[in-house]
Design goal:
The chain has 196 residues and is an alpha/beta fold. The protein has a single domain, classed as 3-Layer(aba) Sandwich (Rossmann fold), CATH 3.40.50. Helices cover 41% and strands 14% of the residues. Strands 3-2-4-5-1-6 form a 6-stranded parallel sheet, sandwiched between helices. It is globular. The chain binds adenosine-5'-triphosphate (ATP) and magnesium ion. Required for both de novo synthesis of the corrin ring for the assimilation of exogenous corrinoids. Participates in the adenosylation of a variety of incomplete and complete corrinoids. This is Corrinoid adenosyltransferase. GO terms for molecular function: ATP binding; corrinoid adenosyltransferase activity.
Length: 196
């Protein structure tokens, strides 16, 4: 391709992008969902927390699973003024007790609701919330209501597999992590600093 044709094509592309940038005028917080079976949902949420606090914004994290694991992100971010509320049961796939898990979930949800009603928070992460809805520990209406009545400029990130379609519909940005390969399938152990 000649230089002038290349330039022409780049200019057309730039015009299109500029028009889309011009068209996007709404300013408000958004609901982001990272779902799917591939690795990267929780790390993407924490990547966004780093961005937010790097710009001096306020973020809070609620984790609906993994109560008994140590957690690299928490070690780093809590001293930076990011509050963490982690469901305290040590809930795992093997030991599910519906009654105690529901209680733990509802207790954790109270913290979530608090952040979702506090305009000081620019970003709220609800890590692994999807399971709470699919196991019926948490009422879907209660979740949608809290999301819809949150402060206008507050953004929220929900992570977890198999997200309910109502939440997907409510979201502004949805990304599905699709596994192409995972080291675990080749027998490689989960690693501190990579997997948690
Ligand atoms: P990460 O926390 O690494 O971003 P994730 O949030 O996308 O992962 P989860 O479904 O929350 O994934 O799973 C939590 C743990 O399982 C993490 O340690 C992650 O590395 C691991 N994991 C994620 N996807 C897979 C997979 N497809 N196969 C095996 N292990 C996985
Ligand atoms: Mg996760």
């Amino acid at each position: 391709m000649s230089q002038s044709r290349h330039e022409e094509r780049q200019q057309r592309l730039k015009d299109k992008v500029d028009a889309r940038i011009e068209a996007a005028q709404i300013e408000r917080g958004i609901l982001i969902i990272f779902t799917g079976n591939g690795k990267g949902k929780t790390t993407a949420a924490f990547g966004t927390v780093c961005r937010a606090i790097g710009h001096g914004k306020k973020a809070g994290v609620i984790q609906f699973i993994k109560g008994s694991w140590d957690n690299g992100e928490r070690e780093l971010l809590e001293p930076q003024g990011v509050p963490f509320y982690v469901m305290s049961t040590g809930f795992t796939w093997e030991t599910q007790n519906k009654e105690t898990d529901t209680l733990a979930c509802l207790e954790t949800w109270q913290h979530a609701k608090q952040l979702l009603s506090d305009p000081q928070y620019d970003l709220v992460v609800l890590d692994e919330l999807t399971y709470m809805v699919s196991y019926h520990y948490l009422d879907l209406n209660e979740v949608t209501q809290a999301l819809q009545s949150r402060p206008e400029n507050q953004s929220v990130i929900i992570t977890g597999r198999a997200c309910h379609r109502f939440l997907l519909e409510l979201a502004d940005t949805v990304t599905e992590m699709r596994p192409i390969k995972h080291a675990f399938d080749a027998g490689i152990k989960a690693q501190k600093g990579i997997d948690w």
